[in-house]
Design goal:
The protein is α/β, with parallel strands linked by helices. It contains ten helices and nine strands. The chain starts with a strand and ends in a 7-residue tail after the last helix.
Length: 258
């Protein structure tokens, strides 16, 4: 049987981490030919990159305005490549500002679209659900409440679980951080979406932790930077939970990925 050809697109570094793990398991279990938009980690997982996530990943308005022409050219390249290769499926990962525009172009080519990791439309700009219903064959969501949200909106949906549940393991128990002599509330600081500026974020978190320590001396702060960095690099983390792989392939009628 000829291996499937699949377009996979992630315009955000945090989404690309999960896209790389999905690509890896698709390659291992189906031999799929993968191409699209992503990161070096996705290339290592077997995706032929037509464009780099870093070309369009931004953290501020001024950067967004500067990158608009580049983003439109990238949309055109991906559309042209999809028209040439005719993939049996497109997997779009998060990044709604870019990926929903790409979805409209792919829909015009008759390519079925699976969306993995939903935009947070349940929190803001909820009207985008109508656009998703028109463009997307199936949503694969990582939070249980999202499944009901999309079902109520008439969008085909399946809950596949959060990939970080399998990727990130706690190194210490809560008790490890407790001092019976000085009871303190434990709060977590988690690295945000601007992964391309991870070094700056790390130092920002250290400064924030110092400020919080001064403002809330009764609290103990734990920064979860290393855990996410290890998960992002895939250092021995298990592959994406099989439900995401199975649901992705079922949507296109592709066998495999048990």
């Amino acid at each position: 049987m000829t291996p499937p050809c699949i377009l996979i697109s992630s315009g955000d570094p945090s989404g690309a981490m999960h896209a790389a793990r999905l690509a890896r398991i698709l390659r291992e279990r189906t031999g799929a030919e993968l191409f699209g938009l992503g990161t070096p980690e996705m290339r290592e997982a077997g995706v032929e990159l037509i464009g780099q996530t870093s070309d369009i990943a931004v953290v501020g308005l001024s950067e967004a305005l500067e990158l608009l022409p580049r983003a439109w050219r990238l949309l055109g390249r991906l559309e042209a490549e999809a028209e040439r290769r005719r993939p049996s499926l497109a997997i779009l990962v998060d990044s709604p500002d870019f990926n929903l525009r790409l979805a409209r172009r792919l829909k015009g080519l008759g390519i079925p679209i699976v969306y993995f990791i939903s935009p947070q439309i349940w929190a803001w700009r909820s009207g985008r659900v109508n656009q998703i219903r028109d463009l997307v064959a199936k949503m694969l969501v990582i939070f249980p409440f999202e499944e009901q949200f999309y079902r109520d909106a008439g969008v085909p949906v399946e809950f596949v679980g959060h990939p970080l549940v399998e990727a990130v393991r706690a190194e210490h128990s809560r008790e490890h951080h407790r001092d019976p002599q000085r009871p303190r509330r434990i709060l977590g600081l988690v690295l945000g979406r601007g992964i391309q500026r991870e070094h700056e974020h790390h130092h920002d978190q250290e400064r924030e932790r110092e400020q919080h320590d001064r403002a809330l001396p009764a609290a103990q702060f734990q920064a979860q930077v290393e855990a996410e960095r290890r998960a992002r690099r895939g250092s021995g983390a298990p592959p994406l939970p099989p439900p995401a792989c199975r649901a992705t392939l079922r949507s296109a009628g592709i066998p495999g990925c048990r």
